[in-house]
Sequence to fold (321 residues):
Amino acid sequence: MEVEKKISDGYPWGHERRFNAFADNFRKIHGMRMQKVSIDAGFSCPNRDGSKGTGGCTYCNNKAFNPSYCLPSKSVSLQIEEGIEFHKKRYRKSGSYLAYFQAYSNTYGSVDKLADLYNEALSHNEIKGLVIGTRPDCVNDEILDFLKDLSERCILLLDFGIESCYDKTLVRINRGHSFRDAVDALEASAKRGIDTGAHFIFGLPGETRQEMLKESEIISGLPLQRVKFHQLQIIRGTAMEQDFYNNPADFEIFTWNDYLDFIIKFIERLNPNIVIERFTGEAPPRFLTGEIWGRKRTDQIIGLIEKRLGELDTWQGRLYK
Ligand code: SF4
Fold:
C-alpha cells in the first residue's frame, strides 16, 4: 500500500509552493535572485569530435537553445556584456548574474584552458558565479578538484546532461556514455561537495511511460542537488527527426495535457530534497517538428503545473518511498 506523507508542519523545503523550486532555494542559500548569461566558449563533445563518436546526440542542435548573442567567435567577456545588456532590456528586475557555460561540453579541455575561460567570466564585476553544463564523461579527478577549489570562492553549479537512466536509450541516441558513467560522475562530484544538477529528457525513443515514471525512483536515489526535466522536442534537421519519421511507433510523444499528467505523477514520486529547476524545454517553434504546445512560456507552464498540484492537493514527494 502506498504510504502518503502527510504534511502537517509545512513542506520540507520551507516555503508554501508545492514543489522544491530552484528560484526559492537559490534565494534561501545565496540571498539573491539571479539570471544566467549564456556563453558559447567554443567547446565540442567527445561524441562529436571523433574521440568517442561523430554526429553528437541524435536530438542535438545547439542553435535551437543558444541565445543570439552567444557565439564562440566572441570572447567570453563580450558575450557576458551583450548577455547582461539583453537581460537588462528584457527584464526590469534582473538582479545578479551567473555566467552559464551552456553550449556543448564545458569541461571538455585541460584545467589550464578551463581556468582561463572561467576566470575571464569571473573577472566581470556583475558576475557572481558560474553554471557549467557538461557530460558525465568529461570530468575526471583533476577537473573536479579544480571545480571544488573554485566553488570555495564563487557560486558554482555543475550540471550534467544524463538524459536517461537506461543504457538502451543512451545507445540509441548516441550519447557515447553509459548510465554507470553518470552515476560515477555524480558520486565523484558529491564526494567533493560540489552543487550538482542533472538534466533528463522524457519521451526518448524506445522508452514507455512506465519506464519514464520508474526513473523517478532511480533519480531520487542519486547524489545530486538539482534536476532539470525536458519533454522531447524533435528539432528539424537532426538524426532524431529521421528516426522519428522512420520509427514513429517507438516514440511516446507528449501532448501538453499528457505531459501535465505525467509530470505531476513523476514529481509526486520524486525525493522532496531534490530541487527542481525546470519542468520543460522551450526551443523556438521554427526549429521544431512534430508535437508543438503552442506559445506557452516557462513561467506559464510552471503556473499551470502548480495550479494542477493545488487542484489535486498533492506535492513533490507525496508518494516518495
Ligand atoms: S553532449 Fe550535449 S552538446 Fe554534445 S552532442 Fe550531446 S546534446 Fe549536443
About this structure: The chain has a mean pLDDT of 92. The pocket of iron/sulfur cluster is lined by residues 45, 47-48, 56-57, 60, 62, 104-105, 135, 161 (CB under 6 Å). Residues 86 and 302 are 23 Å apart (CA to CA). The longest helix spans residues 76-90.
